[in-house]
Amino acid sequence: MIDDTNTVRPGVAEILSIGNELLDGSIQDGNSYWLISRVMKLGGVVARVSILPDDMDVIAQEVQEALNRTVGKAPDVLFVSGGLGPTMDDLTLGAVAKGLGLPLEMHAKAREMVRQGFDALAARGSVEQGGLNPAREKMAMLPRGAIALRNPAGTAPGVLVEREGRSVVCFPGVPGELQQIFQTSLQPFLAKIFPEQAFAQHALWIGCNDESVLAPHLEWFQKRYPDIHVKARSGLFDENPKLKFVFSLGGQKKREVEDALDRALHDLTVRLEEYSYHVTSATDGSE
User: Taxonomically, which superkingdom (predicted)?
Assistant: First the structure.
């Protein structure tokens, strides 16, 4: 048990990635991978990731279930990527509104963001005409009460909806746009969801290629240090005579969290070496 790290309950996120192209293998879901890495660095956890088709009812149902989850960790924030564009298959905002029981409304600030975005593209010669048309205005139809998030890299605003202690954040599916919104416009919100969190992660190589043999030692470790998350990076048995394990811990003060993780891994290393397993840091250059 770690009791000297000022450990606090980490912010919990879920991710919905929207798009038929993700389900037919046309593209990989890099957005979820990127969001998970950023949430972890903020000291939060991602409890679930789902990939959904461009289907209004399916998305709405998933939003309802995520925000009312009773099994597992209920999310503080639901990140939704994809489906904010101007075409008929861009259904995300309507589906989120339906899932929350809210109407869609023209959002004046979002409308201006869309107009400015297309004006800037026209000025650079990237599109023939700036301004607005009905398809572009569709991107400014937001759930009632939503906050429009400026998109420094594109035309579709991000969207934040806060309702009954839960929040939904919608991003465009273009990776560069999602990342820019996350790193700029969304920062004040993220500071509330993941307040003063620190995150430490370290990896070890253990000289054994059979997880089942190491299982009793890892069970001992988890009982002793339940706040530390452990994940094996397994490969094929014949590829490598050792296994890589990644250990991560969140808390309030970075130095205390790092020191606590180091002490815990020292205890694990001592135990494993007593059983004649060779243990090295995965950051020491060993392969």
Answer: Bacteria
In the chain, where the domains are located: 12-193, 198-281
Beta-carbon neighbour count of residue 144 at 10 Å?
Answer: 13
Q: What SS3 class is residue 22?
A: helix
CATH class belonging to 12-193: alpha beta
The CA distance from 92 to 96, in Å, is 6
Helix axes 56-67, 92-100, angle to 10 degrees: 50
Residues in the chain: 287
**pLDDT higher than 60, residue 256:** yes
* Helical H segments across 124-186, by residue range: 134-138, 175-183
Q: Helix (H, G, I), strand (E, B), or coil: what is residue 162?
A: strand
The dihedral through the CA atoms of 161, 163, 168, 169 has a sign that is: positive
pLDDT band for 176, please (50, 70, 90 cuts).
very high
**Which amino acid type is present at position 197?**
Q
Closest CA to 43 of 257, 260, 259: 257
User: What pLDDT score does 150 carry?
Assistant: 98
**Cβ–Cβ < 8 Å for 189, 155:** no
CB-CB contact of 112 with 119 (8 Å)? no
The upper half-sphere exposure of residue 9, i.e. CA atoms within 13 Å in the direction of its Cβ, equals: 7
Pairing relation of β-strands 77-81 and 166-171? Answer: parallel
Residue 286 has pLDDT above 50, yes or no: no
What does pTM read for this prediction?
Answer: 0.80
- For residues 251 and 257, what is the distance between their CA atoms, to the nearest angstrom? 6
Q: 198-281 — its CATH code?
A: 3.30.70.1130
